[in-house]
Design brief:
mainly alpha; two-stranded antiparallel sheet; globular; DUF347; transmembrane helix
Length: 261
């Protein structure tokens, strides 16, 4: 298979195929990030700051393992995504709850930061395609972008459901409609890289709103399942899907083998 050598590393593409299973795990990982972080911070009593520090340490350890791999390994990749989801949620929560920064400000700040990340990534690599994450530098840009998409998605989702008063039930419908619009635009010929990253951002508030709808009490319009049961249920499904991908032989592949996102 074709490999690329850069910064002293040779590897196969480190990102999975973008399929229905990819999006299912992505949405559920955002739900786990939302409900799991709330459970640790509120119900366990660790608080936002301590939870954030613990999850950041775990993310650093798992990301180090991910970076050492020379191909896509499903359980390592998706564990990294789940932890990035939790840390991205915690970053926004700290800014909002601890520092009392307006959701309008944090949403704008994360949007600018993400745009700057993409601009630098493209200036150095001349591509933002996830089908060519074959060097250490590209992978570092990829994970930085993923972190900022989770932080932006959290801030934008909270802005829509809380500050603008949509609520999580309406939020689920709105974000599903927006994602459907992106899918339709892509089907009609919109740029695949742009469509992918917009959809990736939107799945964060969709997953968070869906998690809130399941976990919040009936007094607030939720189903009252609680954060622990919601987190465990979605985590179990993620584990099952990742296990299936591993048994099915999900591995790194030639970036030229998958021309479309």
């Amino acid at each position: 298979m074709q490999v690329t050598r850069r910064l002293g590393r040779s590897m196969l593409n480190k990102v999975p195929e973008v399929t229905l299973v990819f999006w299912l795990i992505k949405v559920m990982s955002t739900t786990v990030g939302e409900t799991g972080a709330d459970y640790l911070a509120v119900h366990v009593g660790l608080g936002t700051s301590v939870t954030g520090l613990i999850m950041a340490a775990l993310l650093a350890a798992v990301l180090a393992v991910q970076l050492r791999m020379n191909r896509y390994v499903p359980w390592v990749y998706w564990l990294t995504v789940v932890l990035v989801s939790i840390v991205g949620t915690q970053i926004t929560d700290v800014l909002t709850d601890k520092l009392e920064i307006s959701l309008y400000v944090s949403t704008a700040a994360f949007a600018i930061t993400l745009a700057a990340t993409f601009a630098i990534w493209f200036a150095l690599e001349r591509t933002l395609s996830i089908h060519s994450i074959v060097t250490t530098r590209r992978e570092l840009f990829y994970w930085a972008a993923i972190l900022f998409t989770f932080a932006l998605g959290t801030a934008a989702g909270d802005l829509a459901t809380e500050a603008l008063g949509l609520g999580f039930n309406v939020g689920v419908v709105v974000f599903m409609a927006l994602i459907a619009g992106v899918a339709a635009a892509y089907a009609l010929g919109a740029n695949e890289v742009l469509a992918f990253w917009i959809a990736y951002i939107l799945t964060r508030p969709l997953g968070a709103s869906f998690g809130d709808m399941l976990s919040q009490s009936r007094d607030y319009g939720g189903l009252g399942l609680g954060t622990i049961y919601t987190s465990l249920a979605f985590l179990a499904v993620i584990i099952a899907l990742v296990g299936w991908l591993s048994l099915a032989g999900g591995s790194g592949r030639n970036p030229e083998a998958s021309p479309r996102a």
